[in-house]
Amino acid sequence: MTSFQLACRIYSIAESVKQQVKELLIESDTHRPHQYGEYTTDEGEQISLSIVISNRYENSYGYLLKILIDQIVNIYDREKGKQVVRYYKEYEVQYLTEKPNFKDHVIIFGPKNIDNLLKKAIYFYLQKHMSKIPDFLRLLIIDLKGNIDSIMKQYPDLQHFCIKDIPDDRTKDVVVKGNQLEQTDIYSRFVINEDTSGDINFLGVSLQDGKIIYVGGDGSIYSRFYFKLDEKIRTIYDLYSKIKKINAFINNLDNYNT
Known about the structure:
Blueprint: E1 3-13, H1 18-27, E2 33-40, E3 46-59, E4 62-77, E5 81-96, E6 105-109, H2 115-127, E7 137-139, H3 148-154, E8 160-164, E9 174-177, H4 185-192, E10 199-206, E11 212-216, E12 221-228, H5 229-245
Antiparallel strand pairs: 1-6, 1-7, 1-12, 2-3, 3-4, 4-5, 5-6, 8-9, 8-10, 10-11, 11-12
């Protein structure tokens, strides 16, 4: 079975658009274009821009989706000049429906800089069908600093951490690697001590199988280790379930009714 490196974020879907998003991502026919916009060329030609669900796989967590998002790029040919080309970007998204935690949440896999295009395309699609669109996807962000003791109880044997904006004229950032770092003096100084600590940029925590997963203060999760597809989804779900258990999210999203 193919293995994958892990990088993702998890978003909560606003209550007011859950049905519309579900119809688009879960209930629509695969390979059917859903127009979210159009592009007008200099010659007046209208080029349709669409969202396409190219594949949908049901699993024990809900549905794993392959989503294509149309984009436009201008290519300049030496002889023909500007050429307008429509192309697509492919997204891998897990729609969570079948587990008690995080129902109607989506996990977007890949580097964080890809999220905006997907979010904008769905927003413009919804705009065609609804009069008012809320902040419909809200990123789950963990309060690492405020819950560090509880997180360490869930994930002892800290392997890696990065601290930013340290209140010291000579030391602004530190990156530390090792084993059981939560038991060290440098951890106490830069993570715990109110006078000498900074903001936690990320924590590298150890899983039971020895793999290290990085939890970012910006809502990102990533790992340099490889995971099988079902293992990847299970790892993310289990991690976020532990975080939810200790109430470590910055915003309580249980009643996300926007």
